[in-house]
Amino acid sequence: MNILSNINGSCLLFGIIFLIAGFVFLIGKGHEHIKAWQNMTEEEKAKVDIKPLCRNLGGILMLCGAIFLVSGFWAAFKTNCFAWAMLAWMVVTILDVIYIQKSDKYKLE
Predict the structure, then answer these.
(1) What value, to the nearest 5°, has the Cα angle with vertex 21 and ends 16 and 22?
(2) Residue 6 pLDDT more than 80?
């Protein structure tokens, strides 16, 4: 019973949500639910290499989910490392967004 008392339900919930969202993007289906993608013209959509972009976003979301899951199951991580891990995730995410914007990897021209 002591093991169950160390489990943080909200972190587990967020971890599962982020893992599922990341997986949906990883398999290439997440962009269909984004309003900005739905509002783009077909010409604009044709300029975007969506599969690698979805894999990129899926990986970032799954990384966040993994941090939340570890935090949910491991109380020592939550008290000692969670804030630093999320800060590192935010820095990685910001750098990834900059890379996506500046790189030609996701453009089909």
Answers:
(1) 95
(2) no
